């Protein structure tokens, strides 16, 4: 059957399991949008307010659905607006298919109207990118892109399709197969077995790779088998239920006290699907001073990249952990477990009545289901969510980890809400982050998405201000915003609704009285501008310098 | 310990691939001392030889990061003891009043070839190890160099086996009949 390039694209998206795409139309994607119009019943398109929001929505969709998210943008500024969203997906290993239109092939390279070399621009923030110059390449390129995005360590792939290719016709097979396979390395487990068998104080450090590999159960079994506590990276936070007694929560700069201390006291760390970001490790020498590290990762380049002298195990986390579980004997370690449970007590908050960020998050959680998707923006509120929200199920957290993208949250919440069939979704945001991409309120309203927006308004750029407070002698350069934005009126202007609260009682009242189920609702929580994120290990520091806030408890 | 090391790669013979490779080195902060690239016996693939400097950590990272790239079929370190490496030099030397006796003797000493000769200058072609090429240049300076052009290193392993494993079976990016997917 002979089809146009635009028709092939739509057919291939559907063939690869895509049911929703996010995007923004423009001149260079008119043919694609014409096909989306004709195929609206088969493929849902959600128009965002801005391409960055569309990219974040596709990212959020991918994280919740465990499928590639798809975003479409026109050439030139449409394509450049995707860049932050693509980089965000790259740093967090999110499978994303970014499709950009471009000028017709004869006009390429001539600085034509709305022409930009998006393949060149995005080269270092994608797993791979393609420009399709011949329509007969398109089917195989799309097949290859989906295979690439989802195989090995997942990530974004961009396909740039010139307008002339969208219009050109060719034979479409509809059964193209990819031969792409990431390099296979046979995992060597002997050293890992020996290290695990001989350890006395094991600690499991679990990251986003565990969720990508569907290895959550295996990690839990390993923890039970070895009596090993589990510390989590931000990307891995939903891998293990918060209610599991040996789950110590997030570790690193703003991690839980117990998690950081246990890591520093362990004699063996089994790291699964993590990349040892500087935010997680702090001072590298101190970090691994007392422990041997067994690092399990599907990406060989991550092994030894940030932590030297490790026992490397390259491969699929689920398979490797299963093999370990087949042979490892049960370990009882009452002393170690006792210490862990003692350290955990330090992470318990006594004050449950003040209108603090932690209590706001706890209050919202009371009204959420275990599978409610929670999105965050970036900053203090993000860290508070990591510390205080008790996640129980995988794929219920959407947050920008590696790139730390302010403005990520609302777009991601939209994508997450769509992926969870329009179920109530929560966005925790700050006034700084929300100001960056609040235009996506228009998208949430038009799509009638029930997103509860908890906006913690402290009138400042809290995280930067916290650093200025702690490390720059309180010189608050450009972080006191002094804005007069009326966020509730703003929500109403977009066609949503909202209210302002300044107490837990008022917040609970709003949540109890019910919020709309057919659109976003914004709750502005006025919080103290001096509220800080603690615990905190200073940058480049170690657990020895951990600060627990106010007076070190 | 920082040392010069040579990487051999088989990559897809497509536009933009060089950019991706160089971009990876740049992104990771590794310097490229020399790079040469050319088509292999199979026109679908090119072979690159990249010389740079770094300790064992950098060497390991370079190889692992390169092997992640879609267009890289294989990347290996060609260690000094198990490979030969040569460079190519084209050099334009001034002919002085005494004729070109000294020049031709020097070219012969280095096993070079004369490619062009006229009243004012001679163009010679020299092949050899980077050190040997450098020695020739140093000796030529007194004769008068108009200009020169030096290639990056070309390197092959001295092992019987095909280090970079370029074979003619189906690889990623190919259809079963051997035709290129893209």
Would you give an account of this structure?
The complex is a heterodimer of chains A (553) and B (182). Chain A has 553 residues and is an alpha/beta fold. Chain A is 38% helix and 17% strand. In chain A, strands 3-2-4-5-7-6 form a six-stranded parallel β-sheet, sandwiched between helices. In chain A, strands 11-10-9-12-13-14 form a six-stranded parallel β-sheet, with helices on both faces. Chain A has a six-stranded parallel β-sheet with strand order 16-15-17-18-20-19, with helices on both faces. In chain A, strand 15, helix 18 (380-388) and strand 16 (397-398) form a beta-alpha-beta unit. In chain A, helix 17 (357-366) runs parallel beside helix 24. The longest helix of chain A is centred in the N-terminal third of the chain and has 16 residues, at 135-150. The radius of gyration of chain A is 24 Å and the shape is globular. In chain B, strand 6 and strand 7 (121-128) form a beta hairpin. In chain B, strands 5, 6, 7, 8 and 9 form a five-stranded antiparallel β-sheet that branches. In chain B, 25% of the residues are buried. Chain B is built from four helices and nine strands, in the order E-H-E-E-H-E-E-H-E-E-H-E-E. Chain B has helices at 17-28, 56-68, 101-109, 130-140, and strands spanning 3-12, 32-39, 45-54, 72-77, 83-94, 113-117, 121-128, 145-150, 154-157. With 182 residues, chain B is an alpha+beta fold. The chains are: A alpha/beta (553), B alpha+beta (182). At the A-B interface, helix 7 of A face helix 1 and helix 2 of B.
């Amino acid at each position: 059957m002979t089809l146009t390039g635009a028709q092939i694209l739509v057919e291939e998206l559907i063939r690869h399991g895509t049911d929703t795409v996010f995007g923004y139309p423009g001149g260079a994607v008119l043919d694609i949008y014409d096909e989306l119009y004709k195929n609206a019943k088969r493929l849902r398109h959600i128009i965002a307010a801005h391409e960055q929001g569309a990219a974040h929505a596709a990212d959020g969709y991918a994280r919740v659905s465990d499928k590639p998210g798809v975003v479409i943008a026109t050439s030139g500024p449409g394509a450049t607006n995707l860049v932050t969203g693509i980089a965000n997906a790259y740093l967090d290993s999110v499978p994303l298919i970014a499709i950009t239109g471009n000028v017709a092939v004869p006009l390429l390279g001539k600085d034509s109207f709305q022409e930009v070399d998006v393949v060149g621009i995005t080269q270092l923030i994608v797993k791979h990118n393609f420009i399709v110059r011949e329509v007969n390449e398109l089917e195989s390129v799309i097949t290859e892109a989906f295979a690439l995005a989802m195989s090995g360590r997942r990530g974004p792939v961009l396909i740039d399709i010139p307008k002339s290719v969208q219009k050109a016709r060719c034979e479409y097979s509809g059964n193209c197969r990819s031969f792409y396979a990431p390099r296979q390395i046979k995992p060597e487990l002997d050293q890992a077995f020996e290290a695990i068998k001989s350890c006395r104080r094991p600690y499991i450090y679990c990251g986003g790779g565990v969720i990508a590999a569907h290895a959550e159960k295996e990690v839990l079994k390993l923890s039970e088998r070895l009596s090993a506590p589990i510390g989590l990276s931000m990307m891995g936070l939903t891998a293990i239920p918060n209610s599991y007694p040996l789950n110590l929560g997030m570790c690193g700069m703003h991690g839980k006290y117990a998690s950081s201390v246990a890591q520093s006291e362990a004699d063996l760390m089994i790291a699964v699907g993590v990349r040892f970001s500087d935010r997680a490790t702090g001072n590298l020498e101190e970090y691994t001073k007392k422990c041997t590290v067994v690092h399990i990762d599907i990406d060989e380049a991550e092994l030894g990249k940030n932590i030297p002298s490790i026992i490397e195990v390259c491969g699929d986390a689920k398979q490797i952990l299963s093999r370990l579980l087949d042979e490892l004997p049960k370990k009882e370690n009452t002393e170690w477990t006792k210490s862990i449970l003692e350290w955990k007590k330090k992470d318990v908050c006594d004050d449950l009545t003040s209108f603090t960020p932690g209590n706001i998050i706890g209050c919202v959680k009371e009204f959420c289901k275990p599978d409610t998707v929670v999105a965050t923006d970036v900053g203090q509120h993000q860290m508070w969510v990591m510390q205080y929200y008790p996640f129980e199920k995988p794929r219920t957290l959407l947050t920008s980890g590696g790139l730390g993208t302010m403005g990520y949250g609302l777009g991601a919440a939209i994508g997450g809400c769509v992926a969870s069939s329009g179920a109530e979704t929560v966005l925790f945001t700050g006034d700084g982050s929300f100001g960056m991409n609040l235009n996506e309120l228009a998208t949430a309203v038009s799509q009638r998405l029930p997103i509860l927006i908890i906006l913690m308004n402290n009138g400042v750029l809290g995280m930067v201000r916290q650093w200025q407070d702690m490390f720059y002698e309180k010189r608050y350069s450009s972080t006191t915003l002094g804005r007069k934005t009326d966020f509730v009126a703003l929500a109403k202007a977009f066609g949503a609704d909202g209210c302002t609260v300044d107490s837990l009682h008022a917040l609970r009242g709003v949540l109890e009285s019910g919020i709309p189920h057919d659109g976003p609702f914004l709750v502005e929580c006025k919080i103290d501008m001096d509220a800080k994120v603690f615990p905190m290990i200073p940058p480049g520091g170690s657990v020895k310098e951990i600060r627990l806030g106010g007076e070190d408890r | 310990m920082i040392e010069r090391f040579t990487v051999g790669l088989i990559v897809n013979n497509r536009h933009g691939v060089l950019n991706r490779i160089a971009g990876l080195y740049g992104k990771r902060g590794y310097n490229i001392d020399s790079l040469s690239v050319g088509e292999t016996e199979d026109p679908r693939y090119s072979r690159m030889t990249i010389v740079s400097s770094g300790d064992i950590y950098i060497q390991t990272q370079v190889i692992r990061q390169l092997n992640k790239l879609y267009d890289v079929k294989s990347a290996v370190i060609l260690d000094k003891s198990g490979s030969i490496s040569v460079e190519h030099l084209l050099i334009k030397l001034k002919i002085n009043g005494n004729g070109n006796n000294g020049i031709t003797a020097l070219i012969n000493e280095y096993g070079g070839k004369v490619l062009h000769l006229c009243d004012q200058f001679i163009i010679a072609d020299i092949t050899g190890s980077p050190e040997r090429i450098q020695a020739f240049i140093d000796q030529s300076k007194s004769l008068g160099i108009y200009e020169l052009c030096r290639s990056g290193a070309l390197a092959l392993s001295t092992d019987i086996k095909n280090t970079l494993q370029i074979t003619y079976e189906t690889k990623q990016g190919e259809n079963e009949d051997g035709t290129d997917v893209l």
